[in-house]
């Protein structure tokens, strides 16, 4: 037994006190290290050649927030990262290079910068690069959440790069054109069948609404959804894309979902509590739970972000405060 009274206020805090800290990773620096990893081992050797973005407040835990994992994955021309599946859900945000693909349950998608790709829990996935450029993307997974529940399973496929069973674009045509197959009836918690959200479409949507009145806390911000249900693409991780016109500064905002952001376009400044950083293209930063975030765009800017918000909302835990 152990005395509750010595730990009660830490166990039941008046408000969130995350051990995670705010941090920013500059892409110029990340790229150098990731390319060095590319000289040291092959993607096949590594299974996944990734440098983990570890929260400085959570050393040794492979976490970017308490519930989420982030890493930068590199695949060089001619390489494959062999097929596997796991109960962890994953997302990719393509940062650099052209010509690689991710295959999800038998369908490939060619990666373009800014594309948001999901590999929902227990879907087979492999990556390959038949092109001539190194390709780098950001991985986001719910690894810490699945570890918390001790619910992790994984399998390797006998075929390291199984041939596609459907043509490229099939899922987007069937599920991503404001239509679904006639007998398709998704369960409410089912992950999206649309597994790629092309950057071209995201940017066009944000541009199209950017003539309106920006939200003081968000600018112009859209949430990625499963088009068949309106729910988040995967039950544990949600993602957004946000447009901030040049000169726009957001009002401070805090929420219980620790969030990872990527600057896909533009530049500016990010303020988290008392800390602030200059923000350039492809820089990645994390805002822990219940930390005030403020963004300023010095040029027209487009940010991507992901968090565990849908998981918190499903459990009735999510809160935000607009200051
Ligand atoms: O690409 O399947 O960054 O399984 C970590 C675990 C990527 C992947 C990661 C993974 C993957």
TrEMBL record:
Q: Which residues form the signal peptide?
A: none
* Residue span(s) of domain Cupin type-2: 72-139
Which molecular function GO terms apply here? Answer: gentisate 1,2-dioxygenase activity
Looking at the keywords, is Cytoplasm present? no
Family matches, as Pfam families: Cupin_2 (PF07883)
EC assignment: the record states 1.13.11.4
Q: Which InterPro entries match?
A: Cupin_2, GDO-like, Gentisate_dOase, RmlC-like_jellyroll, RmlC_Cupin_sf
Query: Which keywords annotate this record?
Result: Dioxygenase, Oxidoreductase
Q: What is this protein called?
A: Gentisate 1,2-dioxygenase
Q: Provide the species name.
A: Caldimonas mangrovi
Q: What is the lineage of its organism?
A: Bacteria, Pseudomonadati, Pseudomonadota, Betaproteobacteria, Burkholderiales
This chain is encoded by the gene named gtdA
